[in-house]
# Entry
Amino acid sequence: MKKIQNLFQSFSSFQKGVIFIFLSVFFALLGGVGVRYIVTHNEIDVFNLVFWGIAGGVFFSFPYIISSQQRRKNISLTIAQYPKALFFTIIVSLVSAAIWFYLLHSVSADTVSLFDQIAIVWSIVLGVLFFQERINILQIFALFLSAIGIYFVFQSETSVDLFRLLLLIGNPFLYALQSLIIKFYGKGADALSLSFLRGIGMCIPFFLLFFSFNLLSFIDIYLFLFLGLTQFSGMIVNKIFYIKAHEHLPISQLNFFFILLPIFTFFLSPYIEINYIFDWWKVFGAILVLLGVVLFLWKNK
# Structure
């Protein structure tokens, strides 16, 4: 373990950021694919999906949090020192999570993953506007190449209605907005504490809202455990690495690597979606996307 730590410390700040963001992508993939698998193979409405998913993620992280005095102390310090980061992150996350679960309940996982990548554009816009960040020509070309690849991957997808289309385009802005909040108000915050408190802050309002309108019901224990594990991965662990990446990467680069999500989801979709149709154009598109990521990394290696 010490050798691994020493090796990690020898990396540049950019390389550390890339490692964190790739780990974040991996756990986000587990979270998203897991939810879509549950929706496809079980009858569960979107309200119970949202609440029990978030509650399950908090449930699985709770024993680890309370088992250490230092981690309990970090929770208190985070509440005291980063109230703005907590408040704004929870508000934005509430809206974003509701939209994300709704889309995964009604739209295929790879389509949702595709549109999530619009966060890359929103991040670049916010990075330029608020931090005067710059991107070079090679990075612009890498983004363009990846965009073409995504088109080929999903060019055979069926269209969605206008309401879902607006949600698919707008929700990635909320992802980018969370990055902006962390950059402004969460610098130096403990990533684990911030992710855990964010989960609790989302769970309580959803419970009060759905319970008030009699929209909640108990679900099977195996379904709760499965759903909880997916959201422990996608909501807690993913966010820990995502927040850590903010210490090493500018906001305009943070969300670029999430462009790998729809590609990974594409290869997993035949095992998730019923009557999934394989298309060689999608394979070609996936190669273009991966090439775009390599070019983006090359300039900063």
About this structure: The chain has one domain: 16-298.
